[in-house]
Amino acid sequence: MKKPYESITNYIYGKNTVFETICQNPKRINKIYFSDGINFDNKLKKINELAQKNSILVQFTNLNKFYKYFSGADKKIIFQGVVASVSPVEYIDFDEFLNKKSNTYRKIVILDGVEDPHNFGAIIRTLAAASFDAVIIPKHRSCPINSTVEKTSCGAVNHICIIKTNSLPSIVDTLKKNNWWIIAADGQSKDNYFDISYKDMNFAIILGAEGEGISKTLLNKADFKIKIPSNFESLNVSAACAIIVYESIRQIHQM
Amino acid sequence: MKKPYESITNYIYGKNTVFETICQNPKRINKIYFSDGINFDNKLKKINELAQKNSILVQFTNLNKFYKYFSGADKKIIFQGVVASVSPVEYIDFDEFLNKKSNTYRKIVILDGVEDPHNFGAIIRTLAAASFDAVIIPKHRSCPINSTVEKTSCGAVNHICIIKTNSLPSIVDTLKKNNWWIIAADGQSKDNYFDISYKDMNFAIILGAEGEGISKTLLNKADFKIKIPSNFESLNVSAACAIIVYESIRQIHQM
């Protein structure tokens, strides 16, 4: 039996995830499946209304048959009454992103080797909350945008530019040539994350995989290296991301 | 076949988790199981040395038999060559904690209804990194300290006081009587989390479950209500915890 890999990424579930997707990007949705005999709450009602408005097919069915499309970790999670088949998230072209005119300074995150889908989804959710402009991931050593990422992000994958690249070092070189500042999170650095200024500049924060950290090539290209003070092991990468990203938001708010 | 609930909580796995536990609290460990025919790396070597030093039994075996003790979500995770049978984490008595003399101001987190073990473990890891003094959870509507919590916390459950209570409101009343300040995270508040000062005081940060938030009774007792500005849905509770906790650390560092 052939089971193409895409079948894993082509279903999403959960009220918030489906709602955010149909609001932001209805064209991604091919069909919506509601649980048999379900009582619609407000969010499910809105999903149903938006489905009608966008001429998206709706079917009532037993959702158990969708278990096979989701990874082991997700099987315990209830679908919250709704599953949708979707086209994959579209990646954004880096040059297009870079050359887009913007009246404000832009802020992005670069992930070097973050392969855990829960961390990747949590990071995307935080970046959407903080109105960051994009996240850049390498083609290899990164996590595909599967149903776990879409669910953990609460649908935030539809709110933020996701850029995939063959070469993080050349992306960083291009950013630097275009007057972006490069900030690398590195447990060995002297400066704390709150010792530098994030104001009045385009900047990229690079985060590495837990344990391994950021590759030396990227680390050497950074304008600033920062650490989060810790009296225990290093922090989880999605917690570290939230802390640094929101320090930049605080500084920009408190100008 | 009787399978007592304790059997779920009595095994931990993973190099960092077992290492932190044997360093901080060797008496918790009853026996250590290494994977058959494993090549010891530095961390496993240290665990083995500490086991000898503390007279802890060691056995080499096929670790697959331990799968049944861990929940579905964990089955995909490799044990990293080591599993240990442990006594449960000991809860700390609230009065004992409160009356302990301290030369510095103390900081704690109160969790109102955080039931997801990954979030609970991630929060404990962040609190250990930030040298917080304790986390308080209600007896009902909270997550037991099971193997998922121990693993997600990277063994940080051994580094921080965990206090369980029948009544969060009476704990908060007692803290207030003892001149602690109560800070509640509430999406509806006017103040941002960086608008208040965390310096020169004992304080407790209350965080609620995602969606539901903090109960009204607790919210009404708070001295400060704070929000994290977001242009998307509310943040994940462990991300929110990391952001607020580290804002307090930043302020105390930058005195």
What does this entry look like structurally?
The structure is a homodimer of 255-residue chains. With 255 residues, chain A is of the alpha/beta class. In chain A, 33% of the residues lie in helices and 20% in strands. A 6-stranded parallel beta sheet of chain A has the order 7-6-5-9-8-10, sandwiched between helices. In chain A, strands 1-4-2-3 form a 4-stranded mixed beta sheet. In chain A, α5 runs parallel beside α9 (237-253). The longest helix of chain A is centred in the C-terminal third of the chain and has 17 residues, at 237-253. Mean pLDDT of chain A is 90; it is low at 1-9. The interface between A and B is large, with 40 and 40 residues.
Looking at the structure, the CATH topology of the largest domain in chain A is Alpha/beta knot
Please, how many helices of chain A? 9
Order of strands, main sheet of chain A, comes to 7-6-5-9-8-10
- Specify which chain pair forms the largest interface: A-B, 40 and 40 residues
Distance between the termini of chain A: 59 Å
Spell the H/E element sequence of chain A: HEHEHEEHEHEHEHEEHEH
What structural category arises from helix and sheet content of chain A? alpha/beta
Q: Determine the fraction of residues in helical runs of chain A and give it as a percent range.
A: 25-40%
Low-confidence stretches of chain A: 1-9
Q: What's the oligomerization state?
A: homodimer
Classified in CATH, the superfamily of the largest domain in chain A is SPOUT methyltransferase, trefoil knot domain
CATH class of the largest domain in chain A: Alpha Beta
At CATH level 2, the architecture of the largest domain in chain A is 3-Layer(aba) Sandwich
- Mean pLDDT level of chain A: 90
DSSP strand (E) fraction of chain A? Answer: 15-25%
The main sheet of chain A comes to:
6 strands, parallel
Give the domain tally of chain A: 2
Gyration radius of chain A (Cα, Å) is 20 Å
